[in-house]
Write a structure and sequence with these properties.
Layout lengths: L6 H10 L1 H10 L14 H8 L16 E14 L4 E13 L15 E5 L9 E2 L13 E5 L3 E13 L11 E10 L2 E3 L3 H12 L5 E15 L2 E14 L2 H20 L10 H18 L13 H32 L6 H14 L28 H66 L1
Helix pairs in contact: 5-6, 5-7, 6-7, 7-9, 8-9
Length: about 450
């Protein structure tokens, strides 16, 4: 080729010499073979190589149709924050080169050869969702059949944009679009065959599982230009075992320990310190596992809401322990009588509602101190009078201790009834919340 000073000069030369180029194209409709050579001669193929910039069609009014298929080999990464999907594809292109045609009988029975792809015309296939450079290894050769049918196998590291839905994480299903476009393109295999081939190679490949590959062909028009496009919908599903083992099960164990902590006796064990230590451990667990949780500006995954609600429930259980501790200790230390409405509402109605039973010898009413039946007579000796005074003081002290014990016992019953009531409410909240979460995840799993 000559070097032209401008694109207009080159275009003018092509237009003026179009008949001659057309004649040359007709001359090279078949490659030449010689005896003693396996395949077409280098000289005949060199003439084709020199015309690699032109579409290989004898009649330029006939379109060159490119057939395309791919196999999804691996899902390399899913970045939920930037909404980017990185995949590795085995791409296969087919098209017809009308100048690379020879007779196998004249070419020592050779029916297929391999040629450098840089020396031949190749279709301009683009992916509309591409957001980064293709750094995959290039395949330098194509296979050419004696009928002019070319097959080009290439590897493609596709970094594409995808609208990722993470609300149902880690049981999420993603539907990403791959749009291949060219002036004339059509699928080489059915979408079902592409899906089956991809599933065979993707079975043991990382975190994601291929559900299906769907697609359709359509025409995209830009002004007077028309582009044939093939749109593939690649549906992939996350394998949730890693997140269930590392996130859900440890969190469930910590919640179970928090529930069992209600069985610690609140009057003799510092339950509040135990719960505060448990909350601190749960907070550290969330900080460590924060890198495993996806994050986007569009929304929060339901598992993040699950962890936040679990932490809130632990705080609620700590507040319940504070209330019970106040009832058991603060009120009793003031030697206050249990109000009558507390006896009726808590010790009678609520206790019957939650089926709480206290020991039969427990007294709900403080005993009235008995008067000293031993009256000191004025006729008693001074020594006896002093002894009687000591005995009276000892009797009064014992009555005071008995009254304090009875008040503590009554407030203990009040605290236990409230503790049982709040514990059952806490269990009801956790059960309802767990049921809702499990049902939502089961619905997503069944739909996927």
């Amino acid at each position: 080729f000559e070097v032209f000073s401008s694109a207009n000069e080159m275009f003018s030369l092509i237009v003026l010499n179009f008949p001659s180029l057309w004649a040359v194209s007709l001359c090279y409709s078949k490659l030449i073979c010689k005896e003693g050579h396996s395949g077409p001669t280098y000289e005949s193929m060199q003439n084709v190589f020199e015309r690699q910039s032109f579409r290989p069609a004898v009649n330029l009014s006939n379109p060159t149709i490119t057939n395309i298929s791919f196999t999804l080999y691996a899902v390399l990464g899913v970045n939920e924050k930037t909404q980017i999907l990185t995949t590795f594809l085995w791409l296969r292109l087919y098209w017809q080169h009308e100048f690379l045609v020879w007779d196998p009988d004249e070419c020592d029975g050779v029916t297929r050869i391999s040629l450098p792809v840089k020396q031949l015309w190749s279709p301009d296939i683009i992916v509309y969702e591409f957001v980064d450079d293709d750094v995959s290894q290039a395949c330098p050769y194509v296979y050419v059949n004696h009928t002019g049918h070319i097959r080009w196998d290439r590897m493609l590291r596709l970094v594409s944009s995808c609208n990722l839905e993470i609300f149902s994480f880690p049981f999420d299903v993603q539907n990403c679009t791959f749009t291949f476009g060219s002036y004339m393109v059509s699928p080489a295999l059915t979408f079902k065959e592409m899906s089956g081939n991809s599933k065979r190679y993707l079975e043991a490949s990382g975190e994601w599982e291929l559900v299906d590959i769907l697609g359709e062909t359509s025409i995209l028009q830009f002004g007077i230009d028309e582009w044939d496009i093939i749109t593939f919908w690649v549906v992939i599903k996350r394998r949730p075992v890693l997140y269930v083992v590392n996130l859900l099960i440890p969190s469930s164990f910590l919640m179970l320990i928090d529930i069992l902590s209600f069985y610690l006796p609140p009057h003799s064990v510092d339950r509040a310190s135990f719960k505060m230590t448990l909350i601190l451990g749960y907070t550290v667990f969330l900080l460590i596992m924060n890198d495993l949780l996806p994050s986007t500006a569009n929304g929060t995954p339901i598992i993040g809401i699950y962890f936040s609600v679990c932490l809130a429930l632990m705080v609620i259980s700590l507040l319940e322990t504070v209330i019970i501790t106040n009832v058991l200790h603060h009120s009793s230390m003031k030697y206050q009588e249990v109000p009558n409405w507390v006896r009726v509402v808590i010790l009678k109605h609520i206790a019957n509602l939650i089926c709480y039973r206290w020991p039969e010898d427990a007294q709900l009413h403080p005993s009235v101190p008995q008067k000293d039946k031993h009256e000191n007579t004025n006729t008693a000796l001074p020594e006896l009078q002093q002894i009687c005074q000591y005995l009276g003081d000892l009797h009064a002290h014992l009555n005071s201790l008995q009254k304090e014990n009875e008040l503590q016992e009554q407030w203990c019953h009040v605290g236990y009834v409230l503790d049982y009531l709040l514990f059952r409410i806490y269990l009801l909240l956790i059960s309802c919340y767990a049921l809702v979460i499990i049902c939502m995840w089961c619905v997503w799993i069944s739909h996927s």
